[in-house]
Amino acid sequence: MKPKIGIIGAGVMGKGVAERFANYGYQVILLDNDDKVASKVISDITRSIKMKKMFDKTLNEDDIVANIKVARDYFDFKTVDFIVENIVEQEEAKKSVYKQVDEE
Questions:
Q1: 29: nearest Cα among 63, 93, 73
Q2: What's the CATH class of domain 5-103?
Q3: What is the pLDDT of residue 88?
Q4: Where is the 3-hydroxyacyl-CoA dehydrogenase NAD binding domain (predicted)?
Q5: β-pair type (82-85, 68-70)
Q6: What is the 3 state secondary structure string of the chain?
Q7: CA distance 97 to 66
Q8: Are 30 and 70 in contact (CB under 8 A)?
């Protein structure tokens, strides 16, 4: 069984990482602290896949998106095997995220 991936940060990098893992059949849990970003991440990833389908007809956005769950908090990360952090490059922000992950 493939590991379950947790991704923190749903900006450009986080969405790309989530899409790539999901494309290869991994279950992905994606979290962003900005509700506006989190609410549109699936539609952004779907749009990205549709653009890539112009060059790779084998891609199926429904199958890929089915592998991605958008989390509301760090509690959902209890079931992941490892975490990829993609937040802003600020030391205090990163420390805060790691602390929250560790507390759950």
A1: 73
A2: alpha beta
A3: 93
A4: 4-103
A5: unpaired
A6: CCCCEEEECCCHHHHHHHHHHHHCCCCEEEECCCHHHHHHHHHHHHHHHHHHCCCCCCCCHHHHHHCEEECCCHHHHHHCCEEEECCCCCHHHHHHHHHHHHHC
A7: 26
A8: yes
The tokens for 20 are 């790539």
pLDDT for the residue 102: 86
- Mind listing the pLDDT tens digit for each residue in 46-63? 999 999 999 999 999 999
- Tally of residues, the chain: 104
Tokens 């986080």 identify what position? 14
pLDDT per position as a tens digit, 81-93: 999 999 999 999 9
Contact 104, 78 (CB under 8 A): yes
CA–CA separation, 94 vs 37, rounded Å?
A: 18
Query: What pLDDT score was predicted for residue 24?
Result: 96
Burial (0-12, 13-18, 19+ Cβ within 10 Å), 8: buried
pLDDT confidence tier of residue 104, bands split at 50, 70 and 90: confident
